[in-house]
Write a structure and sequence with these properties.
The chain has a domain at 38-164 and 186-253: Spore Coat Polysaccharide Biosynthesis Protein SpsA, Chain A. Helix content is 48%, strand content 11%. It has 12 helices and 9 strands. The strands form 2 sheets. The protein has a 7-stranded mixed β-sheet with strand order 3-2-1-4-7-5-8. The chain has a two-stranded parallel sheet with strand order 6-9.
């Protein structure tokens, strides 16, 4: 049992050190230069009849001096998605309806649909979100303004809308912590994570990276894994994080435990493949998994009197202080607020959640995206 505790303290020590480094790297880079360039906003949609109309309306209202085109790719939907997109394309020539069948045939899932849009894009700047997200009127203007100096890639801030649903609350805080991590690692030039809910990159970077070819068989991969391949393959690759309190992208609320877990398993599947692209990120994922796994094991060990209360409580207390400190810094940076009870709720269930997601990620290929595998 002592060996397990030694492993825990080693993992917890490494985990805490990295989190403290990231905490001190959370700040906003406010340097902006407005562009006069063409922006191609690309959205892949599969069976999105309940949400796509809202997003298209918000895109139509974008306030931006740049030239914008909206490439909306129908990914073989069997509902009213295509008809809704066609209605917008008939009224506004900036909206273009495409089919995922126009993407490269060797690409799987969402990446084929995005590839179809990127191939047709006229813009130098490509901007992405999901069909069930909500974007503010100045979204494209802010994101495109971040292409100062030699920036190739912009990761934007995403947030879950508030809800009284306890699953949604957990999702909201969890995404907040992920956004903190993405932001701080970009500031450190570590480049760990991106989000398809709010990201942008230059079209020539996509071409230099040979598109999604290196990750063609992955279920996900259009954001974090693609971000990782760009970091590995593009010389002098540089990214920045875009945040403005008035320009958050709001993503879909998950209101059931099943839908939330399935979403996160799809996301976590990328981490298994990052060893090839970013070994430091992969190691942090492993450290995080084992730190939380041993904390759960300690719960059973104390129940059978194999460890003392002191051995059980101290690691949890250290982890809480470190993570709450990171969260508090993120609240100030991202102009967000969670009270101590809300954070404690997330913290209590986080170890089990991390372990379940970690184990589930090995079965990622058994999970469908919008009904297709």
């Amino acid at each position: 049992m002592e060996n397990i505790q030694y492993i825990l303290y080693i993992c917890l020590g490494l985990y805490s050190t990295i989190i403290l480094i990231l905490r001190n790297s959370l700040f906003n880079n406010n340097e902006k230069i407005l562009n006069n360039k063409t922006i191609s906003i690309i959205v892949a949609v599969k069976n999105g009849e309940n949400s796509i109309n809202r997003l298209l309306s918000q895109l139509h209202k974008q306030i931006d001096n740049n030239i914008i085109e909206f490439l909306i790719i129908d990914d073989n939907s069997d509902d009213e998605t295509k008809r809704i997109i066609s209605k917008y394309s008939d009224l506004d020539s900036r909206f273009v309806l495409l089919s995922s069948n126009e993407g490269k045939k060797n690409l799987n899932h969402k990446k084929r649909a995005l590839d179809a849009g990127i191939r047709k894009a006229k813009g130098e700047i490509l901007l992405f979100t999901d069909a069930d997200c909500q974007v503010p009127n100045n979204w494209s203007k802010l994101i495109s303004s971040k292409y100062f100096k030699d920036i190739h890639y912009v990761v934007g801030y995403s947030e879950v809308p508030s809800s009284n649903n306890i699953i949604t609350l957990f999702q909201k805080i969890d995404l907040f912590m992920l956004m903190n991590t993405a932001h701080s690692t970009i500031n450190k030039n570590w480049y760990w994570a991106s989000s398809g809910q709010n990201q942008s990159y230059l079209k020539n970077i996509f071409n230099k990276n040979k598109g999604f070819q290196e990750i063609s068989n992955c279920l996900q991969g259009d954001d974090t894994l693609f971000f990782q391949t760009c970091r590995k393959n593009i010389k002098d690759f540089k990214a920045t994080f875009a945040f403005d309190p008035q320009n958050k992208v709001y993503c879909r609320q998950e209101k059931t435990l099943y839908s939330f877990i399935m979403q996160r398993i799809r996301w976590a599947g990328d981490a298994l493949k990052t060893w090839k692209f970013n070994k430091y990120f992969f190691c942090m994922s492993v450290i995080t998994f084992f730190t939380n796994l041993i904390i759960i094991l300690n719960f059973f060990l104390i129940f059978f009197n194999y460890i003392t209360i002191f051995q059980f409580v101290v690691p949890i207390l250290i982890k809480f202080i470190i993570e709450y400190s990171f969260a508090s810094r993120g609240m100030k940076t991202h102009n967000d607020t969670y009270n101590i009870l809300q954070f404690t709720y997330w913290f209590i269930f986080q170890p089990l959640y991390v372990v379940v997601i970690g184990i589930g990620s090995f079965f990622q290929n058994q999970i469908s995206w919008r009904g297709s595998k």
